[in-house]
Design brief:
The chain is of the alpha/beta class. The protein contains seven helices and five strands. Strands 1-2-3-4-5 form a five-stranded parallel sheet. α4 runs parallel beside α5 and α5 runs parallel beside α6. It is elongated.
Length: about 180
Amino acid sequence: NVMECAAYDGDSDPFSSLSTVQDALKLSLVCRRFRDLAIRSSLLWCRISSNMNIHLVSALADRLLDPIGEVFVHNSPKHDVSQFIRVVATRSQLWTRFIHGLDFMPSLSPLSQEDLVNVAKESHGLNAPFLSEISIHCSEDLLNTANNEQVHAHYYSTWIIPGLKCFKISNMIPVPFSS
């Protein structure tokens, strides 16, 4: 679809997911035919980021109908990470990718200890049967904290993810999955 090629920004960061949605919205305003095409294209609405307004996050989560969801989490001072996880977790059965932090600059996107506690609480036991990739990039500061403070950074370990094929982690030593 030409419209998908025009709007879809395939980079693996939260900013490209927002860019994709913004471009799709602009194209949908051109005319009725473009609007119909944009609305029917699930690829334009499958990337959800914590730097988006929570109402947009909720609308995008509701639009997920096929297992193509991509979730991007990073520190966003204007947005509540706990509320974000709560909303997107309702559609976790349709996730294919989960990316925490920025792989090219982990120190720019660390979640606070409080945010990690909230992510762990909101996502405990999460079921994501189509999730094939988890990518977690923490700041180097996390390596220097005590082990009891790192426990919440391993929120992913309680998830049920039978289709996981790729697990990337930086600046943190992973723990085994419980499932």
